Amino acid sequence: MVKSGVGAGPGGDLAGAPAPACGGWSRVKGWSEECGVFAAIGVPEAAQIVGLGLHALQHRGQESAGIVSCGEDGAFHSHKGLGLVSEVFTEARLAELPGTLAIGHNRYSTSGSVTLENTQPLRVVYRGGPLALAHNGNLVNAREVREKLEASGSIFQTTLDTEIFLHLMAVSDAETPADGLIQAALQVRGAYALLVLTADAVLALRDAHGIRPLCIGRLGDGYAVASETCALDLVGAEYLRDVEPGELVRFDPRGMQVRRALPAAVPPQHCIFEHIYFSRPDSRVFGEGVDRVRRRIGHRLADEHPAAADLVMAVPDSSNSIALGFSEASGLPFELGLIRNHYVGRTFIQPHQAGRDSSVRIKFNPVAEVVSGQRVVLVDDSIVRGTTSRKLVRLIRRAGAAEVHFRVGSPPVTHPCFYGIDTPSRKELIGVLKSVEEIRDFLGVDSLGYLSLEGLLACERDGRRFCHACFSGQYPVPVNAAAGKLEIENLHRGAARGTQG
Ligand code: AMP
């Protein structure tokens, strides 16, 4: 599935030393990828703070949530469950997690492998002391490493590749958890933003390419660490900086210490899809306000693909900022033409009565008074399979739109993500299967415009710092392109089924 390749791909040379690179397929329905992590250090009722932080990161994962806290006596307390943060954690539950140190995790998955055992943080006894670990990202050499570990006697308790970190730490000759974590990091490849809780500290580690985000905030006399700054905002923490690619930060109630765990990739390879779709627009991610980037995407999209139309509307919520940007640049009014139901739970059973567009209709409904008789620019952040977009267009036409001009804030998705974003195999990507004109026809729109890759990268302050493999196939670290998506998925499934997130 993965080349054990060392060194750099087109996107980023590693400064100096051997590359803790990436590679290998990750995504399949039922394979979790994106997740949210949060830590509170040196603050009273740390678990309550983490609960709030996870709540702010709910968009990064709705499958399960978990928190582990460390009490004054060094004993760990944990609670995990399937579902939303508000379902898993009542106030009473949080009150059962005492202490001034805590970490938490939200897991994302589309289906399958939704088990309590795969819920994070993972909790173990390490060299006589308690230890817990939470991971956002995707290890790509999970199979090889796991097989080696199992051959030498390791017994895994979950199907998460995240667990590999714990086993590698266990077999290391390191004297401290921090050293053990670094030794583990030197043996894995892929994307990870990691939090480790020990009896007296929290460790935060980011992979050498900085693919997934992780930021640090000052919180009273202590600290908070989060996938996105929107979670710092909610708990009242002041953003300090990001954990740098390849950096290990140790937090304890006395302060914060920094170590270089891995040589950082130069330039880093942040996931551009975080800016396009995944992160919240009120977050600062990779040093940039997400809303700002999306506005620029909208401006550029309007320049590249103007439309003779009456109004601009978004596919809410992820495309709102892009559509606003399109409106600013084009002068067309931004209208709320589609309303999204925010209360559609994951377990919602789709009634047959909703008809053939039920999956989309349950989530979105057009405002007939807004779209009727109008030439509409419909802005979405991305088209993956094209099925959602097609149904949305049908709904909008049925509501009376005179014309629909579809504008996409990213290029066609043509390659699956090896590093953690939930994209299907190439044979399901409409950007692979059809030309732009064929996609226009499939969607049933009057015109279709995708933002160019060049245009997208120009919307970033430094486009070289971003991984855009899903649009370009230029994987920043070597991957085994010869292996099909399915083959790689099966390898993953066979060995490290499930995954982190
Ligand atoms: P489709 O083209 O039907 O696969 O769906 C495209 C829609 O899915 C767009 O509105 C995107 O905002 C959204 N989308 C893009 N990437 C993802 C992802 N990784 N997970 C869930 N939804 C996504």
UniProtKB/TrEMBL annotation:
InterPro entries, per the entry: GATase_2_dom, Ntn_hydrolases_N, PRTase-like, PRTase_dom, PurF, PurF_N
Molecular function GO terms recorded: 4 iron, 4 sulfur cluster binding; amidophosphoribosyltransferase activity; magnesium ion binding
Positions of the Glutamine amidotransferase type-2 domain: 35-254
Domain of life per record: Bacteria
Cofactors: [4Fe-4S] cluster; Mg(2+)
Positions of [4Fe-4S] cluster binding: C271, C417, C467, C470
Cofactor note: Binds 1 [4Fe-4S] cluster per subunit.
CDD domains in UniProt: GPATase_N, PRTases_typeI
GO BP terms: 'de novo' IMP biosynthetic process; purine nucleobase biosynthetic process
Keywords, alphabetical: 4Fe-4S, Glutamine amidotransferase, Glycosyltransferase, Iron, Iron-sulfur, Magnesium, Metal-binding, Purine biosynthesis, Transferase
UniProt pathway: Purine metabolism; IMP biosynthesis via de novo pathway; N(1)-(5-phospho-D-ribosyl)glycinamide from 5-phospho-alpha-D-ribose 1-diphosphate: step 1/2
Pfam families, per database record: GATase_6
Catalytic reactions on record: 5-phospho-beta-D-ribosylamine + L-glutamate + diphosphate = 5-phospho-alpha-D-ribose 1-diphosphate + L-glutamine + H2O
Catalytic residue list: C35
EC numbers on record: 2.4.2.14
Binding site for Mg(2+): S318, D380, D381
HAMAP family (UniProt xref): PurF
Purpose of the protein: Catalyzes the formation of phosphoribosylamine from phosphoribosylpyrophosphate (PRPP) and glutamine.
Family of the protein in this entry: In the C-terminal section; belongs to the purine/pyrimidine phosphoribosyltransferase family.
UniProt-recorded name of the protein: Amidophosphoribosyltransferase
